[in-house]
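@channel sequence for tomorrow's demo:
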Amino acid sequence: MSNIQGSAGIAPSLDQIQVEHRSSISIIRLSRPQKRNAISDGLMAALGHHIAELPESTRAVVLAGEGEHFCAGLDLGELKERDAVEGLHHSRSWYYILRELEQGRRPVIAALHGAVVGGGLELATACHIRVADDSAFFALPEGSRGIFVGGGGSVRISKLIGAHRVLDMMLTGRVYKAAEGTALGLAQYHVPAGEALTKAIELAERVATNAPMTNYALIQGLPRIAEQPADHGFLTESMLAAIAQSAPEAKARVKAFLDGTGPKVRA
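structure tokens (generated this afternoon):
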């Protein structure tokens, strides 16, 4: 069960998140369209609450935004006077929730449209797969605001596109359109305007058909293996392979493939 007060003692604004369960997938929508889905403390706490409360039947998650934008970043109207210690703990409360998104039990597919800016980009890059439609644009305007990223962007976004590109975005306010951002790695899929959610749901439904242990091994193992020396990575891989193939569902799937009843890879 989730802590209703959130990771930093903040009551979640449950009306700022909408959740829909469809068989084996759940769709979580940021629901502050009048604020371009800017992230309030209450919205972030509500996101953490809903992630923790997903039903056992959910095998994949879609994260989307209501209205014309995915997320325009931190709600600067809530930016408070904080001393250094308070600012540290506030930032780390975001880390806790985004880590639960990134390192939880289920793959998360983000449907991106309109603004994917600042904290919105930090949120998107905590997801495992990102689908950007042609209306999406990516930016980190913190430099012009006199602030610094505080939701893990300096780590996650830098790993995706390189520290110097992130530096350029923050120093100059550079904006990447959907096609440019996808080419750099900010998204893996680029679709026509208005089709991000449809594609994200399609991908989530496909991912949800995988063996749960394999999905778990992938989202837990691959990011860690990428950070390990090669010899350590080989050992981690061998252990994950052994665990995944020992699951009853994996054995049944291999048997189905061998006897010709399982799905085949097709171009």
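heads up for whoever presents: The domain at 14-207 is CATH 3.90.226.10 (2-enoyl-CoA Hydratase; Chain A, domain 1).
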